[in-house]
């Protein structure tokens, strides 16, 4: 029960009204340690309740302190606008019986209006790094009184090229008393460096091993001959597979637009979401998808982090993601909060090695599936290595060896040696290395 986590009664009242009764494993582990003021590094699967695990201790810290609002007291940094909006919604839901004020700063919104928001000094500021740096450069922002810094999906921020922005913003929060870092994946060397330099004697909590990250999601692959074949398979799945809502991922914006156009032309009500879309269009697409006005959303990885869409039970990887962590984030949009989900990846010959790398990373073997009506000629490589990757085709040696005469098996006659002056060097054919001296 949440009542056993020593949270303020106002927070418990909000949780009760929202039907939050039993805390998730990540909340059980992280909330008590965060309430003690410790720095945390937490790894837990998507949909496990990570946002509440850092928001509730944050709100508890600020409740009941009747001091004038003169500075931003907490900064939550995260990679995308969509995740920022969702986090703001969580903060507002849990703080409904408090006087704690929160605000959001992301790209795509009016800069002057955001400047006015910052002058009000919200207790909790939720932001993406790029736009926050712009306000810092414009003199709209001071972070020298931030007490708690939260880095949510820090690995993704690094992947998106925000390393320098993150470093600067962390340095601006020079008086912070606590830093919390949450992610669904372990990240790489760059993230470990951030952990070592930003966190002070942190408690490391790995709630789920990688192989356990998506136990409630059934994972399948379907082989395809080419892009056009993938498009036909996607249409078949969206018209024959039972689902409430489906999210289709592509690796590029151009492919997302192309696939969206194909589906609409085939009378499938869909929306498209990627970084080139206007912020208002992105926001509207998510709202309509969440409300069920459309059951299909085609998106790039901008939708792979933090989105929690009720009823999303099918994820299709039109393109195989480029890493195991990105795969986890994508399929983590389904099978959330104990519900069952289905993730299907469409695999061409150039996707096979990526897919086998993801299988090794997850220590799983995906279910192979064939749609008889659309069975293609490519069914996977004929030969695979022990790693699961395709055995490469060795290039045939050229029949024309160096010095051979074209069209003849016999080597060409060598030209007679030229007489070299006494003491001269004989040089190699590249004109550089001396070979011997006469």
From TrEMBL:
It is an enzyme of class 3 (hydrolase). Its EC number is 3.6.4.-. Residues 392-417 have a biased composition (Basic residues). The keyword Nucleotide-binding applies. Residues 31-204 form the Helicase ATP-binding domain. A motif (Q motif) lies at residues 1-28. One of its GO terms (molecular function) is hydrolase activity. The keyword Zinc-finger does not apply. It comes from the Bacteria. Residues 1-28 form the DEAD-box RNA helicase Q domain. Residues 232-385 form the Helicase C-terminal domain. Keywords: ATP-binding, Helicase, Hydrolase, Nucleotide-binding. Belongs to the DEAD box helicase family. This is DEAD/DEAH box helicase. It comes from Denitrificimonas halotolerans. The lineage of its organism: Bacteria, Pseudomonadati, Pseudomonadota, Gammaproteobacteria, Pseudomonadales.
